[in-house]
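Entry 14. Ran structure prediction on the chain below.
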Amino acid sequence: MGDISISNGSGHGVQRKSCWYEEEIEENLRWCFALKSILHTGASQYQDIQLLDTKPFGKALVIDGKLQSAEIDEFIYHESLVHPPLLNHPNPKTIFIMGGGEGSTAREILRHRDVQKVIMCDIDEEVVDFCKSHLLVNKEAFYDPRMELVINDARAELERREELYDVIIGDLADPLEGGPCYQLYTKSFYEFIVKPKL
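Output, structure tokens:
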């Protein structure tokens, strides 16, 4: 799980503090990077939330101790997640996002002018509100008239809705046991819930 540590050191007789973020990727492998500041740390009903201002990557969103995205390179992930399915679909008009609370997936989808409706369904309203306030690069996506924000479990929402979608995209946190979305990573979910809605 990601940790923030403050260490004292001395440089030429002057004491200084440095703040670092550290995350274990797997056994015997960790990464860490220096922070400018900790912008927010807290917990919602579903998960721990941190927004860090990092020296190498800019603002970084951390959920349950796992880095979700960083300002400097998040576009690589979100462009790769969104544009291949939308460009391969002959006429993508209605898109459903499972998760995507930070707004980056919606931002990329809404760049497609032919898209008429985007339903973003995230379980954690606190994360969505937090990202709306702090991740300004995605602010326009939240106020686009084509965007409908739904706060609910994506599985329950897909089961409840009768309409079909041209594309369904999952922008989900890691499938941590007991976390808010680990059941959205199963074969049966895609076979019996997602596929019939396409």
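Confidence is low (pLDDT under 50) at residues 7-16. Will compare against last week's run tomorrow.
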